[in-house]
Amino acid sequence: ASRASSIPTHDDVDGAAPIAVTERTMIDVNPPRGTRDFLPEDMRLRNWLFQQFREVSRLLSFEEVDFPVLESEALFIRKAGEEITQQLYNFEDKGGRRVVLRPEITPSLARLVIKQGKSVSLPLKWFTIGQCWRYERMTRGRRREHYQWNMDIIGVSRVRAEAELIHALVILFERLGITSADVGIRISSRKVLQALLQTYSIPEHLFTEVFVIVDKLGKITKEEIEKELVSVGVSLDAVKGLVEVLSFKSLTRLEDVLGPNAEAVADLKQLFSLAENYGYSQWIQFDASVVRGLAYYTGIVFEAFDKEGKLRAICGGGRYDRLLSTFGTDDIPACGFGFGDAVIVELLKEKGLVPDLIRQVDDIVFPLDVELEGPASKIVASLRQKGRSVDLVEDKRLKWVFKHAERVNAGRLILVGNSEWQRVYKRISTIIVVHSDCCYYLTKNKMFSK
Ligand SMILES: CC(=O)Nc1cnc2ccccc2c1
Q1: Whole-angstrom Cα distance, residue 175 to residue 17?
Q2: What interface predicted TM-score (ipTM) does this complex get?
Q3: Could you tell me which residue, 27 or 24, shows the higher pLDDT?
């Protein structure tokens, strides 16, 4: 909590005549619940991470796009019971419109693709990094906002698209110094569950709800999962069958159950074969329990996880071939992933991989006399003109300036002096240079280097 200033009020000072006090209470200097400020050090890490995201996007020849954080609520109203739609940061604006702070990026991307219609040629490979919001009861003390890197491929129906997206993830992890011993990528397909639900003749309109419930595997108990499945109308023996297949970790076992012509098996085999050629097989594994919690996935789904099992999913994604048609246009195949800025930083800290991002300044300019402010300004202007970052310092003692030069890792310290100073520092010209690799200290008429 912020320190409130303590001004005596009437009751503090007994007996005194009431005095008019202008209550100077401090505003709460903390950001809203569940949100963060970024100090320079935090911002250097965030910018470094986002620079990695951008560089990987460039390597995959994705183009950057952006959307408003504020969206129409209608874009996110879905009836599948997803946590994300039950925590909408929604409100009515002054025009009486129902709006939200977006909880995810994909629906905005779908909206823009539809808006562009024929004016964009497919396939599209778009990426963005944007803040997403959720309104969580603070009981869980979890954050209400995070930044997400999203990569999406629109207009490619073959699993080549998923293979490309997974390549992006592998490149990103490798760039951060993370290996396949630290992180794995679990891959499955919603067509696995779909095929099973059909064998148990469960009606299609239940599929999405079943997916969202099954995604809670590992987060709630099996009994609760079974109870929720039965409550949406899945027969008990179907539940048993589902849970059994969801424990599969081998494609051949899956093929035994679904048969060699199952689409799910063909897709996954093709994906694992492409992975061989990309050279990232050691990063991926089939795991039938991966369903992901978003209602709109229709095919391959994947998520990256830390092999020590200490953290929540690092990122996740999948194919969503029906989303655009639910927004009223013809089917356009699509797949993508979302990669949050929180878990990855926790992982980097765990692995000691957080880079040492020091503050850097090329030059510090310090006029030694107040009447040298003018000449100092000329020096500053010419240095900045040359593209050097310059920190102009004034009203400080020289001792402080030297400390500051070290603190900000200055390449050079430029003291602007005049003839008097030359007499004082006999052997020193008016320009004293502090090199980053060795500092020159000045004591009374004597100079030595560290
Ligand atoms: C670990 C973390 O901060 N997760 C997080 C934080 N804020 C969100 C906001 C919207 C949607 C998902 C979110 C997820």
Answers
A1: 70
A2: 0.94
A3: 27
